[in-house]
Every structure is written in C-alpha cells, then in structure tokens.
Give the backbone structure.
Amino acid sequence: MYRQYQTSEELMQLQETIAKDSLERYSGSHHTKFCRYLLITNFPEYVTHFAKKRSLIVTEGSAFRAAHSTEEDISILDFKIGSPAAALTIDCCAFLPIRAALHLGMCGGLRRNYSVGDYFVPIASIRGEGTSDFYFPPEVPAMANFLVQKAVTNVLEKQHANYHIGICHTTNKRFWEFNPNFIERIKVSRAQAIDMESATLFCASYKFKLPTGGLYLISDLPLNKKGIKTKASSKHVHDTYTDDHIEKGVTILKTLRNMVEHNVKGASREDETE
C-alpha cells in the first residue's frame, strides 16, 4: 500500500484513513460518533461514570473505551496509561472534526503545600518521556493550549476549587520514586508535578493543531515518605473525587465551546496558523 513515490498529500490521505480505521478498532466506536469536544482520560471508570450519569452506551475496542453525549457535544475516551498510548490517541483523533480536547489525568504533587484532592493546571511539561521526540526536536517546548487552560482556570475560580498552576515532568518510568538520581533531577528542574502523558499529548496536539489542555487531580505526594500512591489510597481518591473531576471537565468544555462560538482567538483549531 505504501509507495515511495507517493506525494505528501497522498500520504496524508492514507494516514487519515488508517487513523480513523484504527480509532474504530481501538475504541469500538465508529469515527463519526465522536463529538466536537473530547475528554481524554487514563481511567476506564471515568468513562463508566460519565456514561452512567447520562444513560449512555459505553463502547470498548481492543485498547480504548468511549462514550458519546451528543446532547452536550462531548465524547470521552479512556486511553489507559503512558506516553505511547497518549500519542496513539492524538494520532487517531487528530483527523476528526474535534474542536478541542481536555485531558482528565492525575499527577503527583511535588510541593509541600499541595494536598491530595487539589487540582493542578499544567501550563507546560518537561519532555522526559521520549515519545514527543517523534513530533518535534528537543528545543520545542511541550505547551498546553493557552485558551483551553484559560477555560480551565475560569471554571476552577468560579467554583472556588483549590488548584495550582505550573510545570509537569513527564516520565515513562512508573516507579521513579525509588531512584535517588532521578529524584535529584526532579528537584533541580523545579517541576511542580509529575505525570506520564502530558508532554506527549501537548506536543502531538500542537503538531496536529488540535487545541489540548489538561485538568489534573493531585492523587499523591510522592516526595513525602508516606505520600507514595498505594492501592488503598488510589481507591480513596477515585471514590472521593471522580464525579467532581469529570463534571469539572464537562463544564470546562462547555465554557470552551462558548468561547469558540464567540470567536475568541485561539479557542479552536481553525485559528491555528502554519
């Protein structure tokens, strides 16, 4: 199917066909079912909760789970965990008429004044995961879309939520907490939070001109001796904060949709320049 003499336009058309086909295979949803605003998450229970509250059908493919609220014009997609899966998500969704996406993820808080249950708004991410190198050279920063994050902070302020703004360090190493050399690197970088996907999401989305931001729940405080996430603490976080996290995400996308409808520059991918 691939021929060396194909034009760039032909290759892009082929990529779009493969991306849509892959999304359907991975998610169990036809690509036309996806709404114009997208919540992406690492947690299958988020999809279940979103769907149950709205009496929606959950679809599941070979890798992802999804649900679609046509009334709200919002879809939710669980892509599991890690930077390769994050890249795959954007690679598949970039060819759909999605106006903007919001990542509902969790992160480790790296400051003494942070508390589990606070929200974290990433403005950028340190590219420590490697996957983002497929999209841009190292000197290009991994930045969240400003207007998406503006919608995030507007909602958090209006709802009087506890939140922090800063830089994430994105890593592929899940149990980095037991590596003293890595911990020292984290401290030197002055990152305020750590996760496994944001740098990849932001770089891939920037490459494909898909405005993407994040609303992260601080789920653990890994630099504290008793702050590393456990099975019990993870269950407590999910039981306590899942509904609020999801509904804040929905409100943010509705706020962003209003910004798009009022032609706020930078609020949708049509505003992106070459």
User: Anything to note?
Assistant: The longest strand covers residues 100-109. The chain has one domain: 8-271.
